[in-house]
Design a protein that fits this description.
about 220 residues; alpha/beta; Rossmann fold; six-stranded parallel beta sheet; 11 helices; about 10% strand
């Protein structure tokens, strides 16, 4: 039986990855910059800070980090404040974890103020002891720092803690760092489903397939 759980937000707890499918393209168009081929795929695995660096150094965008981050946030924050829904059965699963005394935290690449707003609006903020972001740590989910820091904050043993993720790059990172990983299906990662099934310890189409007792 597990004692700790680390949850991704977008695509795992919430149905929100669709927001990010076009945000980079929308940002470029809004500011009058040409949209390079493969932009969506290039920024998909990046944290906010990594995305800023990519815009500035790889694409040569002549804007400050603050301007890029504020411009991106303005494109998506309304969705977090008012629109994005929970993934199916997420609330029920979190309640089962609470009843089993499993400590939970959120580890996400999204910005903290938007995440806090979404979790509060959806009525699940109280299930989590903390919200930890890639921006706070200065690294993305291609590095294990966010998972290791989340584990430290939970105070649970690694072999008694499970990471819940949907994105293949994050799943790969967590597994290499020695975590058990439960992968949740999301449409945004459908093309990676077979690879995810090979990497993750368990693959669930929804939280309805996740049984606390078997974790």
């Amino acid at each position: 039986m597990i004692k700790g759980a680390i949850f991704d937000l977008d695509g795992t707890l919430t149905d929100s990855m669709w927001i990010w499918d076009t945000v980079a393209i929308d940002f470029m168009k809004q500011h009058g910059f040409p949209v390079p081929p493969g932009l969506r795929e290039a920024v998909k695995p990046l944290s906010f800070l990594q995305m800023v660096a990519y815009y500035q150094h790889d694409l040569g965008i002549p804007l400050s980090a603050e301007e890029i981050m504020n411009g991106t946030n303005q494109l998506v924050e309304h969705r977090y404040f008012y629109e994005i829904p929970l993934k199916a059965h997420a609330g029920e699963f979190l309640q089962k974890l609470r009843e089993a005394d499993v400590r939970c935290g959120v580890a996400t690449a999204s910005e903290k103020y938007m995440v806090e707003a979404a979790l509060t609006r959806l009525g699940i903020r109280d299930y989590f002891e903390f919200v930890l972001t890639c921006t706070e740590l200065g690294s993305g989910k291609d590095e294990p720092a966010i998972f290791e820091e989340a584990l430290r904050r939970l105070g649970t043993a690694k072999d008694e803690t499970v990471v819940f993720e949907d994105a293949v790059h994050a799943i790969r990172t967590a597994k290499k760092a020695g975590f058990r990983v439960v992968a949740l299906y999301d449409d945004s990662a459908a093309e990676d489903a077979e690879e995810i099934k090979e990497i993750a310890d368990r693959y669930c189409r929804s939280f309805a397939e996740c049984e606390v007792e078997s974790l």
